[in-house]
Every structure is written in C-alpha cells, then in structure tokens.
Amino acid sequence: MFYIGIDIGTTSTKAILYDENGKIKSKSSVLYPIYSPRANVREQDPEEIFNAVLSTLKEVNSVAKNSGEKVEFISFSSMMHSLICVDKDANPLTNCIIWADSRSSEYAEQFKGNGIGIEIYKRTGTPCHSMSPLYKIMWLRDNESEIFKNTFKFISIKEYVIYKLFGEYLVDYSIASATGLFNIYDLKWDDEALNLCGIEESKLSIPYPTTYIIEGMLDKYREVLKFDEDIKVVLGASDGCLANLGSNGIDFGTAVVSIGTSGAVRTVSNRPIIDDKGRTFSYILTDNMYVSGGAINNGGITYRWFRDTFCSEEVEIASKMNIEAYDLINKMVENVKPGSEGLIFLPFLTGERAPYWNSNLRGSYIGISDMHKREHFARSTIEGICFAINDVFRVLKETNEDIKCVYVNGGFTKSKCWVQTLTDCMDTKIIISDNYESPTLGALMLGLLAIGRVKTLKELDFMLEDGEVFFPTQNKEKYKELFQIYQNAVSSMTNVLSDLAHFQNKL
C-alpha cells in the first residue's frame, strides 16, 4: 500500500509517494511565481497552484500504478495565512494573497495599539500582523469594496483546492487557527473577529479536525489523476505544524527550527501557549496537540537576495562548474571569523513577523568600516538570520523553559558553518533532522493516524531519522554580546526603518 503527502508551499507544490514504512518511492515538484507589482503586494495565481497540485499528484500516482500498488490516501499540508475571495460560482475575485503581503499593516498596527488585537490573539492564537486574513479582510472591505461586496466565501489556497476537487468548502482546524478568526478553545469562528471585519460566519468554510477524511472526489478530476473511486483525502494541517511533526519535534522539551524561504522556531504542547505580549503564535495540530512559536519572514530568501545582488561572479563560475553558487559563497563565509569583525545585519528585507510583528521593519548593515570586505557581508548575512531565529527562541523559552534540544531542517543545513553559527547563537544542542521533506512526511504521519493505522503519532517514530549533532563552542560568548547589540539596534532604529518603509510604499 502506498500513500501520498502533498505540500502546497509558497514557492512550489510537492507531492511525495510513500510506502508503509515512510520511505520515499517517488516525488514531484512544480514551481510557481510570486507576483509583486508593488513593494507591499505579494500574490499568487490560484489556478497556477491548483494545476501544480494536479500535475504533482498525477505524476506520483502514475509511479504507484506502474508499481502495481494502490494509493490509499492523500494527506494535505499547506501554507498558512493565504486569502482568496471567490464568488458564488467559486470563481476567484482576487489572486491568492499570501502571508508576505503587507497592505493591511496599518490595520494590524491599529489593533495592536488599541489592545483589541491582543485580546483577539489570546483567543485565536494568531498575532497582530498583516499576514493574518483577519486584517487582510479589513483592508479589502475598505479598499476593494466591490470585491468585498461580491465575495461569497473568503478562503485559503487549501480550501480552494479542496473545493475544486470535491465541491465543498471545508477548512481544517490548523489552517483556521492561523486566520485570526478562529477561537482555538471553542473550535468555532470568533464572533468579535467576524464583527470587526464585517462578515458573517456563512462567508467562511466549515471547520473540521485535521484528521477529517473526505471521500467522493469529483469524477472529472479523479479520472484525470487516475485514482480509484475509493481514494481518501485527509484534510490535513498547516505546513508549519506538519513540519514540526515530520522533524521529530513532537516531544515536549524539544523545538524545531526550519529555515527555508522564510524561517520558524516551533515547539509542541498539549495546550495553547499564549504570550501576554502577543509575540508568538499557537496553532492547532491535532485535538490535543498545539504548535507554538514564531516565524520570521527573512530566511533563505535573504541569502538568495545576497547571492543575486552581490555574487554574480560566483553565479557565473558555479554555472560553469555545474554546482550551486551557494557552495562558493559558503566557502567565502567559512574564511571569515565568527562575528564578521563587528558587522551586524538586520535581515528585515520584507518586514518581520516574530517577535516584532512589524511589516515596516527594513534591512540594514550596521557597523560598516573600511576593514569590511564582501566576505564579511556574506557572513554577517547568515549571522543576521541566526540572530532573528534566536530572537524568537528567547521569547519561546520565556513561556517554555524546558526546551533542551533543537532539531533543524531546511536548505541551510547543507552548510555546517551555518548550522554551527546557529548552534552558538542559540547556545543549545542542535540535531539535524534528515527528514528533509518534513511537511509531506508530517502529512503522511497525520494521515496514518486519521485512517486508524496507529493510535498515537509517537508510534511512527521509526519514520524519523536524526543526522549530525552540533554543540555550542566558545564562540557562543561572542554571539551573546553581538546579539545584545542586534536587539538594541532593532529597538533604537524601529522608527527610522518604519519611516523608510512608508517612503518606499509611496513610490
């Protein structure tokens, strides 16, 4: 028997075919762009993403068919905080507005300032930030009144895909808990949040547990994908929650750091962990498991920006050598002493989520002197990302002091120098999780729980593999000092960076 875990991500959709032991039998991935006609706009085409779902599912299912194996279920992982307005015929009235869109930042700041946003956060687990569909809907109400008036449903990209496949508007508790509109204690849409953005509950999908099983895929798609009539679809959860599950991060006292396009620090508990200052999120994984932590906007996307902006020579050489430019940049980084000779990078190229939840922060290199060369800027870039992760980790430890071990995953783990830098910054033992496709593996594990193959997720530990272990070195003292300067810089420069953001948004 085979199973499919599929992850609808920010930059691509991946479908992976697994066997009963969690071993990968086939994988398929389709990339798609982010459209950004203005500095504060980040959108994607829902149909491009839906076609990516169809393409990847069809490809891996064909491998199962050729192997003579049946696919018992598909289990979904998906990015959080997306919003699509659709009319009564399910036609999109907007593109998919993704988490990085910051048009609603003034609304988030207003409700953070008046205290109402913090009270909503305490019930919904979603911090006051422009990523939240709550504030996106407010912005649409006041700035796109015709679209708002003609919207039949406000849905996420996963809900769009599920509706196309099944003709029903369903949302899992995990995606719902990342909207700012869902009470994570009552498991219902929050009345006050709905009133504030001016919509009724009927404008949203019906929420279900993450283990809910959908059957009856519409024939036109089932036949295209060549699935059997009894194929099951597990509604699944959000990519962040499932990445934790698929990275060995479901034991209390452990945390998981992911650095991909963005980044995050997450830990699991049997209850929501709510920060009085609203600095962390708390989302639902299962009925008795919550994932709390914070995400940063600027992970690998920042390193890519550095490559594209400053490393054209390395890109050209890497192309001729048939290697990645990052391999050459990483070697350049290794030749610079930890601390980058006092050069600090604030990595807020697209604003920031945790722990500041401020869309108006902007990036900056601080402490530049004539001793600094391009290689210092390269190292300070990865150190700045590590400081941003550590900033979230320190807040998380305030509410959960028992975190003793951190698992890490994502593309940054290819660089031992980067992982060691993060280890020293966090001053905590770090274990590389070899489960690179963690959201899809988490989706598989959740699916096996949903169909009753196991009674608890812990029974699936055999699917998880640990890699190299890193311990803090004497450089941790240097990074403690620099991290304090980093935090002071953010605090003292917030108003200046905000002024620059407003200037940029007017252009």
Q: How would you describe this protein?
A:
With 507 residues, this protein is α+β, with helices and mostly antiparallel strands. It folds into two domains: 238 residues, ATPase, nucleotide binding domain (Nucleotidyltransferase, domain 5, 2-Layer Sandwich), CATH 3.30.420; 133 residues, 2-Layer Sandwich (Nucleotidyltransferase, domain 5). It contains 17 helices and 23 strands. The strands form seven sheets. It has a seven-stranded mixed beta sheet with strand order 17-18-16-15-21-22-23, sandwiched between helices. A six-stranded mixed beta sheet has the order 3-2-1-5-14-13, with helices on both faces. Strands 4-7 form a two-stranded antiparallel ribbon. A hairpin with a 3-residue loop joins strand 1 and strand 2. Helix 11 packs across helix 12. The radius of gyration is 22 Å and the shape is globular. The mean pLDDT is 95.
**DSSP summary: helix tally:** 17
Dominant shape = globular
Low-confidence stretches: none
Tell me about the biggest sheet?
A: 7 strands, mixed
The SS-based structural class is alpha+beta
CATH architecture of the largest domain: 2-Layer Sandwich
Mean pLDDT: 95
Number of domains: 2
What percent of the residues sit in helical stretches (DSSP H or I)? 40-55%
Give the termini separation. Answer: 56 Å
With strands numbered from the N-terminus, the spatial order across the biggest sheet is 17-18-16-15-21-22-23
CATH superfamily of the largest domain: ATPase, nucleotide binding domain
Write the CATH fold name of the largest domain. Answer: Nucleotidyltransferase, domain 5
